[in-house]
């Protein structure tokens, strides 16, 4: 087996000896269960929070986007009943796509990047309603 | 928009140090020297920062947050939204790079588009003149007040000030649509997701939302397809690198879209860009790394490399089908690829590990995104080195 020698930093770690054959795994392997070795945490302490909003304002945005998705899907379904090739139908589904992506972006930011979009705004304006810490 | 002006002087035979003073913190410095015996020969060395501009085309505008993170992470530092600004800003800033979302150049907001009956994909919904002006300004080292398109409200918000960065990435639906903008790009990438994979990804993205169902997801993709094919897809012929994502060929009748076949299509002859290759440049290689030295789990990994033709351009294609399961598979693969533009052995693996929890970390999407990031770094360093060495000859005075 190829041995990995790092010439820089201590980021890479050799896997535990696994010369034996791997047992059959289901094809649904996600990125997160990929490397079963510890990786060095980046410099500075990183608090790993669950994938939920930190501030009330962000939670409100999440909910608003989810509502909008529901509304716009309903709207698009109705509009397209008349003519599925009409401009109105196209635009209606495009709106659904836009808000769906916006919703997903927010989820990605919170889950993978641990960045609440209101972070820097709330540091400057902690007293606003939007910046109340969200409690479940 | 900050404007810099050049002042001329009367004195001859001397070196003058002139600074313009735009409101931005980046100054433009001109050394201006005129010699009496060669009246018409002036040399202006522009020590101003030269911004390298990268274009990234992808569907669903600026949703490629994880791709962006991989790209910018090669340069070090995390890309974050501008501090203290509009929380719905789409812009990302790190030490070296600024990423601009081209949705900010929508000329029509959501209501406007509904009235006119155009989707966001339609060029009529976008202000290409403004896009061109501002990208050009940033490229020349001039800060701009860029509009913000708010994806939550669907409105155009007040503009934000963008300082010219070292590397500017313009990301969105139309980075290569307008010819003038295209000419400003030092490098361009197109993320080409096949229909089956797009469907699978959108299912993963949307199924948890209570408004969505398989039918609504399907209907949305189909309704947008005509505009997508007409306006977005044709841009791929202009890209220097295309990352094509297809369903795997290793699992018969797979429709889960979890195992992927990813092709990195690289244009030949692009300045400062040397395509990655496997074993023997310009030849055709088929490689399965799993065997005696490397044990892989199902469905394994398969690589292909070959020269090819893409929209009348000569290209080289590296292709990976399958998944990484262990660290040693990744390092093994890395050690057999050439022209990666890494600075040390294992750099690709290290970069992949940094973002091991991102989607695509175990397959070709993460691998090729990382490699493209390294290629951009290489291109940037070469460009900067070149510009430092060559003073610009000004035209006759």
Walk me through this protein's architecture.
The complex is a heterodimer of chains A (136) and B (397). Chain A has a domain at 50-124. Chain A contains three helices and no strands. Chain A has helices spanning 56-82, 87-112, 119-124. In chain A, helix 1 packs antiparallel against helix 2. Chain A starts with 55 loop residues before the first helix and ends in a 12-residue tail after the last helix. In chain A, 30% of the residues are buried. Chain B has 397 residues and is α+β, with helices and mostly antiparallel strands. Helix content of chain B is 27%, strand content 25%. Chain B is built from nine helices and 18 strands. Chain B has a ten-stranded mixed β-sheet with strand order 5-6-9-4-10-11-12-16-15-14. In chain B, helix 1 crosses helix 9 (364-389) and helix 5 (195-206) packs across helix 6. At the A-B interface, helix 1, helix 2 and helix 3 of A face helix 1, helix 2, helix 5, helix 6 and helix 7 of B.
Which key terms come to mind for this protein?
heterodimer, A: 136 residues, mainly alpha, 3 helices, 43% helix, 0% strand, disordered N terminus, B: 397 residues, alpha+beta, Rossmann fold, 2 domains, 10-stranded mixed β-sheet, 9 helices, 27% helix, 25% strand, globular, disordered C terminus
Number of helices of chain A: 3
- What average pLDDT do the residues of chain A reach? 69
Structural class of chain A: mainly alpha
**Order of neighbouring strands in the sheet with most strands of chain B:** 5-6-9-4-10-11-12-16-15-14
Low-confidence parts of chain B: 1-47, 393-397
Q: What's the order of the H and E elements of chain B? A: EEEEHEEHHEEEHEHHEEEEEEHEHHE
Q: State the shape of chain B.
A: globular
Distance between the termini of chain B: 28 Å
- Main sheet attributes: strand count, strand direction, barrel closure of chain B: 10 strands, mixed
What percent strand of chain B? 15-25%
Q: How many structural domains in the coordinates of chain B?
A: 2
Helical proportion of chain B? Answer: 25-40%
Please give the oligomerization state of what you see: heterodimer
**What is the number of strand segments of chain B?**
18
- Global morphology of chain A: elongated
Find the count of extended strands of chain A (DSSP E, 2+ residues): 0
Main sheet characteristics of chain A: none
The most extensive interface, with participating residues per chain, is:
A-B, 77 and 77 residues
N- to C-terminal distance of chain A: 48 Å
Radius of gyration of chain B: 23 Å
